Amino acid sequence: MSVQYVYGVTSADLELPPDLRGIDDREAALVRHAGCAVIAGPVDTDRALGTRDDLFAHQRVLEAVAADGAPVLPFRFGAVLPDRDAIVSELLEPNRESFAEELERIQGHVQLTLKGRYVEEVILGEILRERPEIAGLREELHGVSPEAGYYDRVRLGELIAQALEEKATADADHALELLAPHAERTVAHTPRRTEEILDAAFLVRRDARERFERAVDELGGRWDGRVRLRLVGPLPPYDFAESGGEG
């Protein structure tokens, strides 16, 4: 027995890329209704979803649709409905107006995600030059046994962490100030690791993408050697879909 796995919502006039396959290598198809369409495909009910391959298949379908320039509202991983009729009655019909409005809003846009992480030894050098009290304490502890200098080492770690946080906040603010004017909307996430300073998503018009990427290159030039930047995209608007994210 199978159910219908929901990948996302797009325009009813879209044609999917040929032989587009999703979870379990099952073919994805469109369920159309009232100007909108759900991208869906069968999945068996005798197993739980959630493997790495499942997640990659979910992303692959959405990104293949978005790569052709079609507007797509990504659904969260794991959304299923009993059958194609339920897709129409429970999803498309009740949400047709909100889906249509969102699809119109993101038409002609892509998401670009920028991540940045410090080059640790370079940033530590900056902190020591800029904060003489930290450099002095570090020098005092040189050659001191771990036991004798325990509390001072704890204090040194706290001072470095505080300085790193302040520097990361300032650098992230600078990046957003430089890039936000080239995007329609921006979502900044809290970085997950200490050395990460930037994890931001930008909703960018397709005709402004080149300009946005030049701004990223400019930022990379300013930060050359101290921050590693990674630009990911174009992507479906994962961070900007509202109705589509409720799946």
Automatic annotation (TrEMBL):
<dbReference type="GO" id="GO:0031412">
    <property type="term" value="P:gas vesicle organization"/>
</dbReference>
<dbReference type="Pfam" id="PF06386">
    <property type="entry name" value="GvpL_GvpF"/>
</dbReference>
<dbReference type="GO" id="GO:0031411">
    <property type="term" value="C:gas vesicle"/>
</dbReference>
<dbReference type="InterPro" id="IPR009430">
    <property type="entry name" value="GvpL/GvpF"/>
</dbReference>
<comment type="similarity">
    <text>Belongs to the gas vesicle GvpF/GvpL family.</text>
</comment>
<keyword id="KW-0304">Gas vesicle</keyword>
<protein>
    <submittedName>
        <fullName>Gas vesicle protein GvpL/GvpF</fullName>
    </submittedName>
</protein>
